[in-house]
Amino acid sequence: MAAIDAAAIPQSEIPASMKIAFAVMVATLVAAPLPPFQVDPVFLMKALCFALFACAFNLLIGYGGLLSFGHAMFFGWASYVAAHLAKVGAISMPYWSDGWHWLVIPLPPQSPELAILGGTLVAGVLGGIVGALAIRRQGVYFAMITLALAQMMYLFALQMKFTGGEDGIQGVPRGRLFGIIDLSGSVAMYAFVMLIFLAAFLLIYRIVYSPFGEVLKAIRENEPRAISLGYKTERYKLVAFILSATLAGLAGATKALAFQFASLTDLHWTMSGEVVLMALVGGFGTIFGPVVGAVAIVALQTHFASFGEWVPVIEGAIFIACVLVLRRGVVGELAARLHIRL
Amino acid sequence: MFEIFGIPSTALFGQLVLGLVNGSFYALLGLGLAVIFGMLNIINFAHGAQYMMGAFAAVLLLDKLGIGYWPALVLVPVIIGAFGIVIERLLLQWLYKLDHLYGLLLTFGLALVIEGVFRRYYGPSGIRYGVPDLLQGEQNLGFMSLPDYPAWVIAVSVVVCFGTWFAIARTRLGSYLRAATENPTLVRAFGIDVPRMIMLTYGFGVALAALAGVLAAPIYNVSAQMGSDLIIVVFAVVVIGGMGSIMGAIVAGFGLGIVEGLTEAFFPEASSTVIFAVMVIVLLIRPTGLFVRGT
Fold first, then answer.
1. What ipTM was estimated for this complex?
2. Is residue A281 a contact partner of residue A324, using CB atoms and an 8 Å limit?
3. Size of interface A-B (CB pairs under 8 A)
4. pTM of the entire structure?
């Protein structure tokens, strides 16, 4: 990890609080599945996929001030595409030449890296289209537009054949990474998920503290002023949207392989709400907040699984409580109290 | 019987009526959203849940107290409207000075709580509520037969929507309301109790949703999730119409209901997505919404 860390960020710029928090996070992730903790790797993989999803979402709300209520569409569609690629092992698309035909491009068999790449790219392209439409309006309209477009993508998935409708895509093979490393064991898969998560996490850190990220924060604080300074704010917002959608797609694609299925649940508006909740609980605009929020919400869902029907009620109550008394989130509040950056 | 573009006219008129019925609900709910947004600067995500509560309240009044459809039509909006006022006093009033997004987040949480509780106690499958005896017949209009209940729903919605528009655009109370939307501080300085007006506005918006719920109970399945899918469509309607004008919300509601009904007649598989497609087109050619002049 240290190698990526050093390569990505100049050492001098990183505050000590960030370094310590990052070290604690990595140590926790490495130690968790080992004795004496022996946390279930399935739980850890789920938590990490959602943590990445929440971090991607937070890039938009926390640093761009844009509340997307439709991020499940990137997560869910990437998950479908990755599951399809890993299971069918081919890209097929219709083309016209004296009638419709199917163009089938076979892929190397059982290649998880290509499946994840494919799902992520599709999410990025979808993000480009949705982002270009949604940034035409601001504030609450932006949230309503993303929600409506996500519902449209949900209805498409319900109607299309390759998604398997209500059943989803099941029995997705994890395959061999680069044709060498067998991912069917949960330890190997966890290590793979952890690597993806950490790489994406560092990338998000890099984006947030880059000149691009600073402009984004300026737009969040005062868009007319940023425009008057000569920034093409729409372009910055669109790039932020595409980055966020792509990373949300990476999370969804990884989840499809880790859990070996893709379903409509990941595409439903409740999933869009869940990722908002994760980021809100941890703290909008904090680097570590969404990770803490995601782990907390996934733990809550796992712990209260036997009270299944009450889980949405509890989540709704947490939403209300956070908005009323903990708007900075757990990590945001901690950082503010201790006067550090997290 | 004759045909229009290969569709039998009776089927086409039937779809048109269904479209108008859906449009009635879009208009009533969109109107409530617009009125609430105008005064509170909050997008009421719980609107769908409050509509569902209206339908359930009608069912429960009949089951537990034997109170039928006609009294329910008045009682339910009052009860659920009062519930809305409690919500406003307990939760929403603390948010007015914050970013608009927090109102959306809080009411989303509220929707989850309400929907979750109803799903816990009444399950995911629906409950039936009969059409009142008086409205079970149908009228023969010559070119089609019009069932009474859908006609009643459309009529109530038109009357309530235009009554609301009239009250806001043409009466003294409405002028206070519009003034308070523009500049609450100044209106307060004239001795008008703005916080109380905000509270009552929210109660009224919620009552509109509850009224729509009672109207919907005899035609749609009464279930915990009946509001959430509907409210997303209403959001698209509101984006298309723009919330700046009351009339815009009403016209967009009925218009998109008709568009949806006709799509159902010609391309049934596209009917669930057509409103979202219209939203995309509107965003491309007139991003501020159809009924808003400039920004």
1. 0.91
2. no
3. 115
4. 0.91
